[in-house]
Amino acid sequence: MRKGVLVRHLIRAHLGPFLFALSTITGLLFINAIAQRVDSLVGKGLPWQVVVEFLFLSLPHTIALSLPMAVLVAVLYAFSDMAASNEITAMSAGGVSPARMILPVFGLGAIATLAMLFFNNSVLPESNHALKNLLLDIGRKSPTLELREQVVNELRTGVGVNRYFLTADRIDHDTNELQNITIFDANDPMRQRTTYAEAGEMAFNDTRTDLYLTLYNGAVHEVQNDRVGGFQRLYFDKQVVPLREVGNELERRLGGGDRSDREMGFKMLFANADERQAQLDTILQESRSQGEQALRVALNLEVEADSAVASESAQMRDMLGGSLRGRYIQRDPMTRQIVAGARARSARGAALQQSVNRFRVEIHKKLAIAIACLVFVLIGPPLALRFPSAGVGFVVVASGVIFFIYYVGLLGGEALADRRVASPAITMWLGNVIFFSLGVALLRRMGHTSGTGRTGIGDAITGFFGRSSARTGKEGS
Q1: Per-residue pLDDT tens for 71-94?
Q2: What is the pLDDT of residues 19-63, one digit of tens each?
Q3: Eight-class DSSP state of 176
Q4: Same domain, yes or no, for 84 and 17?
Q5: Beta pairing partners, 39
Q6: Last residue of a domain, one of 243, 278, 308
Q7: Same domain, yes or no: 75 and 171
Q8: Same domain, yes or no: 192 and 86
Q9: How far apart are alpha carbons 149 and 138 in whole angstroms?
Q10: How many other CB atoms sit within 10 Å of the CB of residue 314?
């Protein structure tokens, strides 16, 4: 068989199933994604152009997941169909080896991988960024979508009468949960309040005009300017902060704003990961330096020549030499400074480390999903040829099982990497390594697989248990 004829035939055999699988899987995932976000559109009174833009920008995220799936479905279906119609047998009789059959398909997988790399680097981040900005604009009635992590967010209430400034280390827009929250309220010049909380939740009233922040495990610091040295500190386990009339109009902005890890290409991800890592190294160096300074004070050694520092060092030595009870240490200025600085650096370092992990996880995830196209092309043909007459049912079951294992492993690996349980270089690539190894093992046996067999899934299972029973009877006799 001429090489050009074989290549064209294999391409035609895969193109139809690929397009059908891509459109079907994308449609199913797209409907599911829209169903999860439909509450962002309902009751907003939005024009149809905004709704169409929302749907269009939501599409790339589903394509990033469905394209590798479609590659596997196309390969499984094409080779299973060719085996069932004896085309594989005819090719083998014509001197076409299994490796020669797979090589053109592997080339198609390489093209799909390159397309996925470009898509994940350029198209997907920009669409995610544009979608986030659109949701922020729609979120003028839902201010939770406007809040950004690790920046100062300004909230205006009562049609701009009052202003609040909020920061949070982590904001989950899906669950409306916040972590390490600071709220500054300077609307009353006589009572300037700063609220700190370890965690919090956001919720709206029925008309979605008032935002309620439920804060947990925090304190309120109030500076009272109407009397000299006026200061009050209140601790709370739970506190509700109401923000009235936070916004009620759709105002389109021209993009911009901070980007999350899913809104960055490879270049921005590497740059941000390196920048956060440099900041983290600086914090670690400061912590070591501060620890050495505290140790020198404890060992009755000089710290600096500055008289103020020397005085504080002597005071700290006296406290350490006399009693280590908490009330004495808390009264010592240098001790308070060291403890407060250590806590601040620890919180900042944890936030930076989490950011570095997220950026690195996203880099490996984008690469792993693209390479999955090659892995699925590798495992598809030998798997299909083992069950040549199993039909469409085999294609659906096999691809569904592989998808489930792969993407569950991907999500689980992402969670483990975010928590620093394991390196993203391991967790994000584990699924590819497993299926690549399985594909290589099946390819090595593909040359020994008969192309004329009509083995289905049921026949294979029956044959397996039949051989097991025969071996058991022979051993018993």
Answers
A1: 999 998 888 888 888 777 787 777
A2: 999 999 999 888 888 887 776 666 556 677 888 888 898 899 899
A3: T
A4: yes
A5: none
A6: 243
A7: no
A8: no
A9: 19
A10: 15
Residue type, 245: E
Could you tell me if 323 and 278 lie in one domain?
yes
* 121: helix, strand or coil: helix
389 found inside a domain: yes
Integer angstrom CA distances of residue 95 from 3, 307, 454 = 11, 92, 21
Question: Which residues 6+ apart lie within 8 Å of 14 measured at CB?
Answer: 74, 75, 78, 105, 108
d(CA 138, CA 57): 14
Helix (H, G, I), strand (E, B) or coil at 446: helix
348 and 461 in a common domain: no
Please give the torsion angle defined by the CA atoms of residues 410, 415, 416 and 420, in that order, rounded to the nearest 10 degrees: 130
Instruction: Let me know whether 8 and 130 are in one domain.
Output: yes
Q: Minimal CA–CA distance to 297: which of 276, 318, 327? A: 318
- For residue 352 the two structure tokens come to 């930076």
Location of structure tokens 């909230």: 155
Count of domains forming the chain: 3
CA angle in degrees (0–180, nearest 5) for 170-172-178 = 50
Cβ-based neighbours of 215, under 8 Å, separated by 6 or more = 181, 195, 197, 199, 200, 236, 238, 239, 240, 241
Give the structural domain span for 435.
Answer: 3-138+362-472
> Do residues 299 and 366 both lie within one domain?
no
Is the entire prediction scored with pTM above 0.70? no
How many residues in the chain?
477
